[in-house]
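Think of the structure tokens as a kind of shorthand, similar to the way a musician reads notation: each symbol stands for something richer, in this case the local conformation of the backbone. In the example below we present two proteins back to back. Begin with the first one, reading the sequence and then the tokens, and try to describe in your own words what changes along the chain.
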Amino acid sequence: RWRSRVDRVLVVDCPPATQIARVVARSGLATDEVQRIIDAQAPRAQRLAAADIVVHNGDDVDLATLERTIAQLARSFGL
């Protein structure tokens, strides 16, 4: 139902271990708390399947590449 209300779905994705490490470092939450939060959300596979566009933001992506990707997407969205 929600799909008809949006033009495109963009998902920013990284490996689960990276996601957990980043949240722990940023928030100070314990790993098990972060995992519970993630478990309450839509599964990664479901998010990726729903995406029209996936921005990969793993540890293997350098900041310059990520910035170029975001700038290109912003232009394509007319921003």
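Once you have a description of the first chain, move to the second and do the same.
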Amino acid sequence: KIRIKKSYNKFSKLIPVRIRHSLKTIVYGENPFSSMGFRYFGPIDGHNIKLLIKYFEYAKTCNEPVFLHIKTTKGKGYSFAEEDTIGKWHGVGPFNIETGSILSKQNNTSIKWSEGISNLLLEEAKLNKKIHVITPAMIFGSGLIKFQKELPSQLTDCGIAEDHAVIMANALSISGQIPVVMLYSTFLQRAYDAINHDVCRINQHVVFLIDRSGIIGEDGSTHQGVFDLSLLNALPNLEILMPKDLGSAKKLLNYALYVAKGPVAIRYPRGSVQKDFNLNDKAIEKFEIILPLKDNNIITYGEDVLEFKKYLNEYNLDYGLINAQFIKPLDLELLKNMKNSKLIVYENNLIHGGLGSSLLIANSKLNLNIDVKIIGIDDQYVEHGNIQTIKDKIGLNIEDFVRKLK
């Protein structure tokens, strides 16, 4: 018997891969990756597991960097996903496998925040042709399907290029348009340099609608929107707003579109919001007093305002409640009226760089002697999980917190 080492058998199986690569090089010539020192292989059928394994095994024998160009079909094997052209199947919850219909948890009285904000924007864009929406490949995720159908000329999908979206918005603003950039909180990080350098530095009027702000749950740890506020809070000229419901969202959006002279960011969460709302003629206040000010007060923003109001009333606690719908700039006049009081700051965001940090600075500068206590997310990355489960784990359960105040 002739004994042959296992390594030889392994190598012999890779000969077709090497020959195929050599022939492609002869026929098509060098490619950009080869010219940069990579061993390029592809395109490779990403659904052929055996073929992929051959290439992976061969890649391990190479002494230089390897570039494997693998082509796949998104949603392969499920017709509804394969035929998706708008991103409906990019990330899904429970659905009916036979019909492909998504099993929605919404009722008839609620709507997704992203869809609600998009509808408000559509109303304004129909009245003002200068409004132009830019989205980095998030038409479906940002609830812009209806907008795209009704006002396609006022919407640009610039692809997965957040920094380009911001720079394009800057150019539109300079030319007299009202640009609105819609993107997720987590993807705003990709555009941070452009927001700082190309928009805020020159105080250009660009509106940023930041979806999925705060703890957002099952989208995953990397998508938790707990950084955008701290990142944006450091930028001069930028105003940061957050509505508690669609009624306040409409007012804040109109302020951002028609009143503000510089950049404005409006944050809103993932999830659902009441569809119907009543508008009042009350002027917009930076800090809205929800429950009359006392010696002990709580300040927060977004939907958490409504939850605090519910439980403070339910447990009959003598606390004032403030809605910081303008997270930046602060309402300094109202703060001056709270001198020598106690203030609890609750935020669904990192403590560092959040509302509480800004209040501490103002408290120190103005010598207000307000006893400030901050409840928020410590210096950590937030894990994947159900929103309420995460809040329970990191000490942000509002009902538990209010109960302990008794």
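Compare your description with these statements about the second chain. Residues 6-12 have pLDDT under 50 and may be disordered.
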